[in-house]
Amino acid sequence: MKIQGVYGVAPFYWLLYFRIHLVCTGSRSIQLAIANSGAVVGAIAMIGLIESDMPNLVTMAEEFKLAENPSQIILRSLFDLEDVRTGATARRSIPLLVDILKPMADKPGAPLVALHLLTQLAEGSETNKVAMAEAGALDALTMYLSLSPQDSTETTIINLLGILYKNPDLLYYESSLSTLNQLVAVLRLGSRNSRLSAARTLQNLFDSESIRDTEVARQAIQPLLDMLESGNEIEQQATLGALIKLSAGNISKASAMFDVEGNTLESLYKILSFSSSLELKKDAAQLCYVLFENSDIRASPIATECLRPLISLMSSGSSLVVEPAVCALSRLLDEEHNAEIAATNEVVDLLVSFVPGTNYQLSEASIAALIKLGKDRPNCKLDMVKAGIIEHALDMILEVPISVSSSIAELLRILTNNSGIAKSSAAAKMVEPLFLLLRRPDVTMWDQHSALQALVNILEKPQSLAALKSTPSQIIEPLISFLDSPSQAIQQLGTEVLSHLLEQEHFQQDITTKNAVVPLVQLAGIGILSLQQTAVKALENISQSWPKAVADAGGIFELSKVIVQDDPQPSQALWESAALVLCNVLRYSSDNYVKVSLAVLVRLLNSTMESTVTIALGALLVQEKSNSRCAVAMAEAGAVRALLELLKSHRCEESAARLLEALINNSRVRETKVAKHSIAPLSQYLLDPQSKNQAAKFLVTLALGDIFQHEALARASDSVSACRALVSLLEDQPTDDMTMVAICALQSLVMHSRTNRRAVAEAGGILVVQELLLSPNVDIAGQAALLIKHLFSNHTLQEYVSNELIRSLTAALERELLSTSSINEVILRTIYVIFSNFRKVRFSEAATLCIPHLVCALKDGNEAAQESVLDTLCLLKESWPQMNEDIAKAQSLISAEAIPVLQMLMKTCPPSFHDRADNLLHCLPGCLTVTILRGNNLKQTMGSTNAFCCLQIGNGPPRQTKLVNQSICPVWNEGFTWLFDIPPKGQKLYILCKSKNTFGKSTLGRVTIQIDKVVTEGVYSGFFSLSHDGGKDGSRTLEIEIVWSNRPANDNM
């Protein structure tokens, strides 16, 4: 409505008074009818107009004692009606009132009236606030404020802005930043009331993060702090509210407060300590909470001074201040020295008392403070337990919001870090609630971490599961999901809890446990040591009940990766644990042996656990037997070195020795360096007095024998130690099998090495072997003889040749049990070698005593034995000229016992024997026996025949038979013997046959016989014709037998 002229205004002016009467005294329907009639718009148009244009009307109204400013009275009265204030009339009025805010020279009082009316419309109506903003009220008010109005007007403007900005939607208008700028200016230069209103309005503006983050907002800090320091309690409260909003969640703002002039904390400390207003103290504590997010502020001395008033507020019993005080204290305790100061029973008991209840924010803050006090402070933890924190926590943990549950879980983790608490009966009560917490769908990853760690702490004590009501399946199932968590820490703790549970047999055997195998196997091979450690530890128990599941899940491959893993290097505990799991799988089925690589099995030999080593040895033996080519691969993987170490430490000795022998028995392995390097350790094992396992010693001896089949290895420098070890072994009188193997190994050692021969001799080996010559075991005695043969095959051991050695060989030869052809041959050949290489032995008494046994061997032995005897006797015969005469005669006489055998050999043995046998026959002393049996046709022309025979050899005295009277065929059967030191050579036997009668003696004839032939043939007999006067008479014969044999034992030379 537009009013012009004086006469047009006056009626309307008086109409306003009428309407005032109706509005003030009329019914509600009349009031609404007036509001809807357009009276509101008309009244707005009259604002400021009457006072400026018609002063006479105003004077008249005063005379009649009428109310001033009738338009304002009508508008305020109508706007008091909620239907009008929230209806269309108000929305139509708002743009008109906003227009009046613009200063006009002809209406100087109109803007202030509009301010009050807009304020009336804005209060309690969010719709009107938005309408005002859309009508440009924010810009108009900000512009009005920039004109530096009077203090009261300035305060009114700011108050209206404060009302408007309570609507969060208005904070996004561009005008808000201009408003912020003007309010900061008011804080600096405005009146006290204006500053108070500005501080309150800023609280609303600072609800917007975009406004808080502006540089202008930062500029508000200093004037606000000035107000805080110098203002009264009301001003301080408004200032605190603004500062709390401004710095919320922004550490830089908090730092800015700490860096400005003046001391913010000191002001807050004064308020906390000396203010009588709990409301103000609450705000101060809230700001402290904001400021203490900054570590520099927390570490300041004045921050520490705030501890006492904050604790005092906590003790006040006022719910208004307890929560902010606890929150501020909790932040302050992030500094260790503050926590030390606060760590008293009083504080602990207070905080514990705040935990239960429905104020979850207070509960969470109290728990957070307890967590900080409990870190590294065992006494504080015990105080918490005494104050009943565990009971409170367990009563709440499943009923409160997840954020509080999270804090409770973390507190329980801190408490159970104390071993005494973790082992207590109170801790055992935590197990069930913690597992139930983990099953909540809204549980966070941090909650999982805290709960799992607390469980790990508690479950180290097996009795903690005694009161568990949930079934194994209910417990294990959620844990399995943690094994696939994106957090390594959760995976690790989950597997660690699972590992503790699986120490119980009923958990191991539960079918749900089987579902954990696959993720655990995957974690085992992941290559992250912390995860591997816990996963493998869990598999340790699972593999006892579900070994097949572990194998089917790829456990052999993944665990093998751990065994051979070098980067990162697993700890010894992890390595041993993985080895144990793998062995559990292998123990389940030997079919799995071939699925494990040789490198892994060899690595397992390094385990400190005997059960692991045993399984590995079994698997390696299976693979070696199934494929001989595996031996080289095992050796290259370090198997020999590992096996030697096992022997050295006397662990799994028999199996280790068995595998080692099998490897070294492979010719390709013996060609590698590892065979050479094995000599000394194997020798040391035999020499070690702690080596008691006879089977292992036998196999080690056999392995040495295998090694020394290689000539170069037998010549190695370490072979000397092997000689000593083998001799030492023989001294201990081992079993026949071990003795045989040791002797054979020594044979290989001494066969090609003079050094080894001397080593055996110096170790006392000759005496030991001499004793073995008399072993009842034929094979051992024969091999002992062969070893002696190798030892004395040259002049290296000249000083060790003795009569005892020959006596031992003689005794061995003498034993009836050793009279088999094969053994005789070895012993006889050994004797020959010694006599051949050591001439002095031939002159000994032992050599003389040996000859009868040589003769027996010549008689009963096979061709090889006979040949050795012939060689030996020939050696002795060659030395007789250089010997003492008595010894030579004794030896030759004893050797003559062989004459019959030699004569037989000349007839039956190969031609190669003839020369030696004939040579001996023609140098041995013997006995020539001539027997005149009878004569034939010895008749004479005259007289009867009384025949006798005369015999002569060389220049010796003649011999004569008895006289047989009157017989032309006399029978003498009479023998004559000649002893020879050496067989007669080239000599002849002369026999003269005569007859004696009364006329004297007459010659019947004579026989001449060459006796050389009989030495070789032994017996020469037949009918010999008598010759007479240069001719033979074939009718006259003598039957003669000539025998060459050894001399009778009782005959003297």
TrEMBL record:
Q: Which PANTHER family match?
A: PROTEIN CELLULOSE SYNTHASE INTERACTIVE 1 (PTHR46369), PROTEIN CELLULOSE SYNTHASE INTERACTIVE 3 (PTHR46369:SF1)
SUPFAM superfamilies the UniProt entry points to? ARM repeat, C2 domain (Calcium/lipid-binding domain, CaLB)
Domain of life, per UniProt, equals Eukaryota
Annotated Gene3D superfamilies: C2 domain, Leucine-rich Repeat Variant
Query: What is the protein name given in its UniProt record?
Result: C2 domain-containing protein
User: Where does the C2 domain lie?
Assistant: 907-1024
Alphabetically, the GO molecular function entries are: microtubule binding
